[in-house]
Design goal:
The protein is mostly helical. The chain has ten helices and no strands. It has one domain. The chain is rod-shaped. 32% of the residues are buried.
Amino acid sequence: MSWLHDLSTGWLALVVFAGTYIVTAAIFLVVMALAKGRRAEAFKAVSPGLLPPMGLLFGLLVGFLAAQVWSNGDRAQLAVDREASAFRSVALLMEVFPREPEARMRVLLRRQIDESVTVEWPAMARGDATLTVVPVALDRALRLALTLTPRTEGEKTAQREIVASVQAAFDARRQRIILSESSVTWVKWTGVVLVGVLTLLAIAFVQSGNRPAAAIALWLFASAMACSLVLIASHDRPFSGQFRIRPDLLQEVVPRNG
């Protein structure tokens, strides 16, 4: 499935619709070819009442997958927002300290953001980002915050907030890396596709006595099935694909001329 996530939405839709229509056409041709004699009577005996529960089951499975995908995307975006907000808080609070430590902190923040954009984001898109490597710049930023020497009550309060913000950035980074590995498993994909194919078979059996009606019914359900699969697949991984979460917000946190 990895190569599908790298496709644009247009190509993804083309692949999914083409595959769905090919399978649907194969089901139509095979069922109609077999619908002769006693087999035709057996096919016609399949109750049309079977279709609503099968369609409902397919809809429920699609709904569950969509809920998972949307939830992962929202949580990933929230993690990026929290990380950017934490960096921005650090940059603003450092202004109460002398110029030298403030400049060092800004350099560390820019270094961490550059590392996130150039190294972590591509790794998250591939799904192989790891938490085993400690971000050096962020670790040094925390050490710098802890070694600040506040002279006033305001600076003491600012130091506590800076330490808390850097720790929040650590946590947000951990969350986005974890969520970058989230996706719909092959078992779930297999389940929803299998239920869809079985529903197509049921439609073909029920309508086997009327070929035009069977073709129309199969086309309608296949189109709805393909639309559902494209919608889920295009948002499956939060940090890959055309609708991926981008690091633009992080890049706007600390101006390079600041």
